[in-house]
Amino acid sequence: MTTTEINAAASAPRSGRLDFARQAPKVFRAVLGLDAAAREGLDPALVELVQIRSSQLNNCAYCLHMHTGDARKAGESEERLHMTGVWREAKHFFTEKEQAALALTEAVTLVADGGVPDEVYGTAAACFEERELAQLLGLILTINTWNRIALATRKTAGTDGR
Predict the structure, then answer these.
(1) pLDDT at 158
(2) Would the pTM of this model clear 0.85, i.e. be above it?
(3) How far apart are CA 146 and CA 130, in angstroms?
(4) Among 8, 26, 106, 149, which lies 20 to 30 A Cα-Cα from 100?
(5) Cα separation of 128 and 132, whole Å?
(6) Dist. CA 148–CA 126, nearest whole Å
(7) Are 14 and 37 in contact (CB under 8 A)?
(8) How far apart, in whole angstroms, are the C-alpha atoms of residue 117 and residue 81?
(9) Alpha carbon 97 to chain centroid, angstroms
(10) SS3 of the chain
């Protein structure tokens, strides 16, 4: 997020809950730093697919709206955006690497449902170099953090200033 986006987030309509960015600015900036660090070296299209899928699983309308918009601006097709939630039934829309990333995203996002299966991790490890896999895990952890912040503070979809 840029300074403009942070300011827009701070001035967005309030839900009656605290303004996390304003009330915990050091924590907010730390998450922004984690987000920026996690993206390094990853394909921007893959980044958005991961963020979209995690936001779908977490029912985070705020983040889903933000990341589908970002994906569109970056040239992502409407077809792939619509198929992200059902990627297993629409594999032909996604590369093997994207499928591995989406499977890992689901397993990490839903980690309480049984952990990350060896098969899912192994497939991701076969598709990504170790550093890239570490970055991908960082990205998944980061979007889950953003989802939880947005959900806990009841951020309203479409108010992110993008």
Answers:
(1) 80
(2) yes
(3) 24
(4) 149
(5) 6
(6) 30
(7) no
(8) 26
(9) 17
(10) CCHHHHHHHHHCCCCCCCCHHHHCHHHHHHHHHHHHHHHCCCCHHHHHHHHHHHHHHCCCHHHHHHHHHHHHHCCCCHHHHHHHHHHHHCHHHCCHHHHHHHHHHHHHHCHHHCCCCHHHHHHHHHHCCHHHHHHHHHHHHHHHHHHHHHHHCCCCCCCCCC
Residues 6+ apart with CB under 8 A from 54: 63, 105, 109, 140, 143, 144, 147
Is residue 51 a contact partner of residue 108, using CB atoms and an 8 Å limit?
no
Q: How far from chain centre, in Å, is Cα 128?
A: 18
pLDDT at residue 162, as a whole number: 67
Question: Which value, to the nearest 10 degrees, does the dihedral of the CA atoms of residues 137, 144, 142, 119 take?
Answer: 0
CA–CA gap between residue 61 and residue 23 (Å, rounded): 22
The amino acid at residue 118 is: D
Region 102-106: mean pLDDT is 98
Radius of gyration in angstroms for the set of CA atoms belonging to the chain, rounded to a whole number: 16
In residues, how long is the chain? 162
